[in-house]
Amino acid sequence: MPVYSDSMQLKCIAFATALSSIAIGQTTPHQRIVQLVDRHAAHFSATSKTIWGYAELGYHEEKSSALLQQELKAEGFRVESPVANEPTAFVATYGTGKPVIGIMGEFDALPGLSQAAVPDRSPVVSGGAGHGCGHNLLGSGAALAAVALKDYMEQNHVAGTLRYYGTPAEEGGDGKVYMIRAGLFRDTDVVLHWHPSNENLIQNGGMLSLNGARFLFHGVAAHAAMAPERGRSALDAVMLMGNGIEFLREHVPSNTRIHYIITNGGAAPNIVPDMAELYLYARNPQLPVLGEIWNRILKIGQGAALMTETTLEVKDIGGDANLLPNDALAKVAQRNLEEVGGFHYTAEEKHFAEELQKSLPAGGAGDLDSTASIVPPRRPDPNAPAASTDAGDVSWNVPTIGFGTATFVPGVVAHTWQAAACAGMSIGQRGMVMAAKALAVTGADLFSNPQLVADAKADFQRELEGKSYQSVIPEGQRPPLEYRKQ
After folding, report:
1. 360 three-state secondary structure
2. From the CB of residue 186, how many other CB atoms can be counted at a distance below 10 Å?
3. Distance from CA of residue 282 to its chain's centroid?
4. How many CA atoms lie within 13 A of 394 on its CB side?
5. Do 399 and 456 meet the contact criterion of CB atoms below 8 Å apart?
6. Predicted TM-score of the model (pTM)
7. Phi-psi group of 381: left, alpha or beta (phi > 0 → left; psi -120 to 50 → alpha; rest → beta)
8. Three-class SS string for 46-69?
9. Where in the chain is the domain with CATH 3.30.70.360?
């Protein structure tokens, strides 16, 4: 089995970016920005590999956040940290005045997905965390785009404010929601984001809105054989709530997802449990529809408590909104992604990909040449499989558009060891550089074209018509800094 060393990976990056560099001479603004991305590409690819090695969980990304802050400070950004009562959240700013264009970066890892940058299951730390969603690439690629765009603004005396939002705990911690509530996006005109993928596309809306909470029932303990009549079983309440959820499934839209686990079922069979807990997520493509479903779920929990003479505590409430589309931004983003173009694997990368695809389910492997193509414009199918992200909450507050680039081998899905392996080697890093180019040239378009910003805002208002944004997270709730330990 070949070993994919750090130096070899960086050589692949340098070779690929050299090929794509444009000879010095008469160049367009987009070409100059691509050159600037290429200039910084190897450095930020190394940064992404360092953060991949840190593999820190949500709200505890101390080293990852500090490294990105250090990189941005070194490039002339003013950094404010911490923000929004989140120790690892920060905002890095360059320039002044309008427009204010934001680029979002994430850097949290996932539990249990530690993986070496090799095409077979090889944890670096048994049971440890790993970047199975590629957020090491996401944060570093967004920073690469911000630095290149800053250089372009500086060299060409471009007015306006560029912000990099360092957003922690996307994986279940809702970090961006608390940053929104702290007013950090209040004066932002447009936000750009990207996410690792197994294809190259524009993310114009989609994803699933999500509400989650722990339903903790409190009962009365008793001897289960000698005095069962004295007990009030919290476990009975959990079971009844689960039963109620199963009956509810018949009466919700077909694209709704409800999934739960029992995190506490009691201490021993001969003790009537005085405490039991059900941890539940509910999802739907539309935030208002999910709100109606969530109210019914709350009633089921209350009914279970009433039937068992227990009390219910709903705690650790979290939630993400779906992504609002913005056609004005999507049109420009699609054009820019097609202009940047995809990439072909080197011989070494192709061998890695072929070996990795052997671990995928039958029929799960994708076409390795698809990394060179761009998915045509499309609105997401509300019935297609999807996940959730707190970037959706940003899209309900600021005009937002997203990119996806092929950092994962075709057929590989996020939240897997295969994705973590790709995120630690040159395949992931080359997809990251592609994303940075698309982000940076789109940012330049927004700074140079006031009408584009105005069109994005008008489209944003049209999408909001008849809708309202309301996060399920209670006002005043602080970020759940230890949510991974529960």
Report:
1. coil
2. 10
3. 18
4. 28
5. yes
6. 0.92
7. beta
8. HHHHHHHHHCCCCCCCHHHHHHHH
9. 209-320
Q: Which helix (H) or strand (E) holds 99?
A: none
The reply to whether omega before 82 is within 30° of 0 (cis) is: yes
CATH class of 6-207+322-464: alpha beta
Question: Which part of the chain has CATH 3.40.630.10?
Answer: 6-207+322-464
Query: Could you list the pLDDT tens digit for every one of the 486 residues in the chain?
Result: 444 455 555 555 544 444 444 344 479 999 999 999 999 999 999 999 999 999 999 999 999 999 999 999 999 999 999 999 999 999 999 999 999 999 999 999 999 999 999 999 999 999 999 999 999 999 999 999 999 999 999 999 999 999 999 999 999 999 999 999 999 999 999 999 999 999 999 999 999 999 999 999 999 999 999 999 999 999 999 999 999 999 999 999 999 999 999 999 999 999 999 999 999 999 999 999 999 999 999 999 999 999 999 999 999 999 999 999 999 999 999 999 999 999 999 999 999 999 999 999 999 999 999 999 999 998 888 888 899 999 999 999 999 999 999 999 999 999 999 999 999 999 999 999 999 999 999 999 999 999 999 999 999 999 999 999 999 999 999 999 999 986
What is the number of residues in the chain?
486
Those residues with Cβ within 8 angstroms of residue 258's Cβ, 6 or more apart along the chain or in another chain: 245, 248, 249, 252, 280, 281, 282, 283, 293, 297
**Going by C-beta distance under 8 Å and a sequence separation of 6 or more, which residues neighbour residue 452?**
328, 329, 332, 445, 446
Paired sense of beta strands 160-166 and 201-203, if any = unpaired
The CATH class given to the 209-320 domain equals alpha beta
What's the DSSP call for residue 258?
E
